[in-house]
Write a structure and sequence with these properties.
alpha/beta; Rossmann fold; 7-stranded parallel β-sheet; 11 helices; binds serine
């Protein structure tokens, strides 16, 4: 299968490339930035600005992918600093990719939405289908992406499929998200011996380890369409408090110094997000299940972070 990835140089993209190449797909990686050092050397790397409709159309036309994984996005923290850029990349960029799929006849589009697409005032365990009232530009544009994708599915028969990702944790370099405190407890905690989280110790949001996040994308992409009753799915793995994450890191890195000093802006964003997602619909319709809970993630991630630091990649 031929797969085109937008935002391939991001935290998800780099891991997705490795996974798709390993299973034998032909991958075309695209990003605004140059090929990062961590990208596999054998993947073709094409420059693509998703805000440029002609460039998106030309590249999709030239590559003729069976499937596009559209990952290019500005995350929540950066998006609040540059809402205009977040709008263009997330909103216009997604529209451009959808239009290219329609015009060129791409069969399938996989899209990544987020816990930030929800808003405040929802139950502690948030069901799949609820009113979406996000309070960040990132969240607003992701809801719009979900709805546009559903529209293209109904109107143009595009096989649009989407997961709502929790905050993602991996040994990669994070990219301007508000959930990044969780990842920094591992990366900075191990590299520098200390990290001060920008949230309260009792902050609780849904989180997921990257191998589960990658498997969710490829499993959803491969699920038989007739089993899917919708286009957009909550997926979940764990919802520890920041203090519980710190405790888990300390169990593997005993001398690490992890403290908390809440930043009001980022705390307000975190407080507007769900505390946990109900992923029952994804489990029923395409067999989604997570493999990593907090301590399993810590046991796997700590040696990975140490390896990345040794290789100068963190
Ligand atoms: N990780 C994202 C962020 O923090 C949430 O989807 O913006």
């Amino acid at each position: 299968m031929k797969v085109l990835i937008t935002g391939a140089g991001g935290q998800v993209g780099l891991e997705l490339i490795t996974h798709l190449l390993a299973r034998g797909d032909t991958v075309c990686a695209t990003d605004l930035k140059e090929r990062p050092a961590a990208a596999p050397a054998d993947v073709p790397w094409r420059h693509l600005d998703v805000t440029d409709p002609a460039a998106v159309h030309a590249l999709v036309q030239q590559e003729q992918p069976d499937s596009i994984f559209h990952l290019a996005a500005i995350l929540s923290a950066t998006g609040e600093q540059m809402p205009n850029v977040a709008y263009r990349v997330n909103q216009t960029g997604t529209y451009n990719v959808l239009e290219a799929c329609r015009q060129v006849g791409v069969r399938q589009l996989i899209f990544t939405s987020t816990i930030a697409a929800f808003g405040p005032g929802l139950p502690d365990l948030v069901p799949n289908d609820v009113p979406m009232r996000p309070s960040t530009m990132y969240g607003v544009t992701k809801v719009a992406g979900e709805l546009l994708g559903e529209y293209y599915h109904q109107k143009w028969d595009l096989d649009f499929r989407c997961v709502r990702y929790p905050g993602l944790i991996s040994a990669g370099v994070p990219g301007g998200g508000t959930s990044d405190y969780a990842l920094h407890m591992y990366t900075d905690g191990i590299k520098r011996g200390h990290y001060e989280s920008f949230c309260h110790a009792d902050t609780r949001i849904p989180l997921m380890y990257m191998p589960d996040a990658i498997r969710a994308l490829v499993d959803l992409a491969a699920a038989p369409r007739e089993r899917l009753k919708r286009c957009v799915y909550n997926i979940a793995a764990m919802s520890p408090t920041a203090a519980e994450i710190a405790e888990s890191v300390r169990s593997a890195v005993p001398d690490v110094d992890l403290t908390f000093c809440s930043d009001p802006h980022r705390q307000a964003i975190l407080d507007s997000w769900p505390r946990a997602l109900d992923d029952g619909v994804a489990r029923d319709e395409w067999g989604w299940h997570h493999e990593y809970d907090l301590d399993a993630m810590t046991a796997h991630l700590v040696p990975e972070v140490r390896k990345m630091i040794e290789h100068g990649l963190l």
